[in-house]
Amino acid sequence: MSVKAKALYTFQSENKEEISIQENEELVIFDENSVDGWFQGENSRGERGLFPASYVEIIRTRSNSNVTDCSISPAGSLGNDSSYFPSTPNSSLHMQQSFYDDDDDDWDDWDDRSTVVEDADHTRSPGANGHAHQSPLSNNPNVYYRSKPHMERQDSISSSRKGSMVGRNLNRFSSFVRSGVEAFVLGDVPMMAKIAESYTIDMAPLGPQWKESPQPFSCSIEDPTKQTKFKGIKTYISYRVTPSHTGRPVYRRYKHFDWLYNRLLHKFTVISVPHLPEKQATGRFEEDFIEKRKRRLILWMNHMTSHPVLSQYEGFEHFLMCADDKQWKLGKRRAEKDEMVGAHFMLTLQIPNEHQDLQDVEERIDTFKAFAKKMDDSVMQLTHVASELVRKHLGGFRKEFQRLGNAFQSISQAFMLDPPHSSETFNNAISHTGRTYENIGEMFAEQPKYDLFHMLDKLSLYQGLLANFPDIIHLQKGAFAKVKESQRMSDEGKMDQDEADGIRKRCRTVGFALQAEMSHFHQRREVDFKDMMQAYLREQIAFYQRVVQQLERTLRMYDCL
């Protein structure tokens, strides 16, 4: 049965089975049941094909109501998480789905649902990361773990009151509500008796920033290998992942990366988690696709290890270090039962004592919002131009140089038709000139994999990072609105000043976190774009030097005539 939907994000097709969709475009989905995370449908231009289920929301009409309920269409489920607030703001792309790669099975080989993590914790002495001592890989000093703590109410509101008097947002589907930040700001988040997990924000000369990891590390992703199981029925690609601080490789499939990505979205409310490389409905075992996915997974991993907060996450350490199947299942279940997610993550933040005027913070965030929008537009423009240039390298440039080479070859052949007046040396030089230009055409066709592909990979990473910020900024805007509303109610005598001060204090926490994330984005942006531009220019110089060498060798053939 066909249903109407709206595109949440822009998607560019990469093969003939897929269709491109634009943000906010109206779509028709032929079958509401997605296949491996893809819908088949029709865009507003009448094109029919596949597009990612996570990029759209199905428009449903509630029964017995005149209200239209737009909800993200799930291609899968995250499972039964014990979080008080079940989603995060930058989850609009993937949060309510656990995308399974098209080569994924039902997790039966690595995810035993009968495992009880708490029992294991009570029967074995825990190691440094909460795993049993038999795991030799739990030695990351950057991460602090805890046993499951008892939950209790520690609101700033007296126990006789049911919650803040400040009104709740009517739109319960907004990221401000779904993330739990509204409840956090209003003091309605159940707090922990003991919070062992902690992330610090320092005040730097340019503003708040995340405290750097005491032992930074990197991680390589290499050797994508095609593997089979169940006597060849299941086929998948395995990657060798080696963190620098252990030097011990583990082997991961795309679905493992996808599991980690969804845990990150679920936990870190105000952090822009980079998107994973996109799925592809067809051709997933082709060499070019495997190489492209590997390059983009490397960039994704580099961003992860460079982030002072994401790199300290327990689930990330588990992903990087656990090589034992049984311990993997235990750690996976522990990460999925993590209670310090979404709004509770805000309780783990240690903010500076320095005073910040909320109006100044709001102006700074507005400036960043304008910058992010302009950068997003510019990244999209450069992506379009670079993609067009790739197509010209692979098609137009090669064909034009081949045509020129063939024309020179034709001249040489014509000169050979009158032997008494032809010069074999001269004819050979002209013929060689034709072959040189044909070779140059092939060089143009090969060049994008050395420069433009890498540029497009980096731009894709930043498109994902920038796409997260509108929702994250919306959290701070919602918090500002609650502060203003609470102060107005306090001035009118409808709220205790202590409660209004509590809302303001919690809004400061949200503001410090967002500013720290903005600062980290700027730092990484300068490093990444410097590397991107230098690498591109070096490859361009080397390419044209090779072209010049070819032409100079050909030119010298005429000097002997």
TrEMBL record:
* Compartments it resides in: Cytoplasmic vesicle membrane
- Which is one GO molecular function term here? phosphatidylinositol binding
The main location class comes to membrane
- One GO biological process from the UniProt record? mitotic cell cycle
Ranges for region Disordered? 78-99, 119-164
The UniProt entry, under Pfam families, shows: BAR_3_WASP_bdg (PF10456), PX (PF00787), SH3_9 (PF14604)
Q: Domain (PX): give its ranges.
A: 217-327
The positions making up the signal sequence are: none
Q: What is this protein called?
A: Sorting nexin
| Source organism per UniProt | Xyrichtys novacula (Pearly razorfish)
Taxonomy, top ranks, is: Eukaryota, Metazoa, Chordata, Craniata, Vertebrata
